[in-house]
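hiii, so i know i said id send this last week but things got crazy w the move. better late than never?? heres the sequnce for the chain we talked about at the cafe, plus the structure i predicted for it. fair warning i was half asleep when i ran it
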Amino acid sequence: MIVMNERFYIAYGSNMSEVQMEQRCPDAVLWRTGKVNGYELLFKGSLTGCYATIEKKDDAFVPVVIWCISQADERRLDVYEGFPKFYYKKTIPVETDKGIIRGLVYIMHEDRKFGEPIDWYYQNMERDYRKFGFDLSILRKGLTESRVRTKGARVRLISMDDVQAPPAGTEGTVQYVDDTGTIHVQWDTGGSLGLVPGADEWELVE
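okay and structure toks below
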């Protein structure tokens, strides 16, 4: 039962995790699953990494986990999600087995650049997709689409575990992301060593 001062929160990324939500939002109660129609799943980034977001697209949908949260939980989520600079908030309709409900969702600002999530982030989402019986092809398509759209992004190297690596601070342009997740970059210094998520460090040039 939903009581006064509580609302529905719609999770499609790492906050599908019950363990994570127990830590972040101690008042939260898992209500049920549903789907958001007219949106697609994508991965975009900031200087701290790349994370899940949703953007409008006809004839698409994103499976979601629906939480009942308190006002205090929402304030905590504002901090974790980087609201309002990184994500903004919106109330949207969600299709469930109990009918259409409206819930709060955090959506990354659309001008953020596409990118590749680190392995643990993607793997945790994959785990929760399996747990809740979601269609894994939606998650995989979101990753593939984001990889394709990463081409042309500018990156700045922080560190790379390779004796032939360009100096820290070198900038380059992303050429493509291969099936292993390696980000192939044409560095301004002339080299073309790829970035390996989880091993190398870099930042997007805003």
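btw Residues 1-5 have pLDDT under 50 and may be disordered. thought thatd interest u
miss u guys!!
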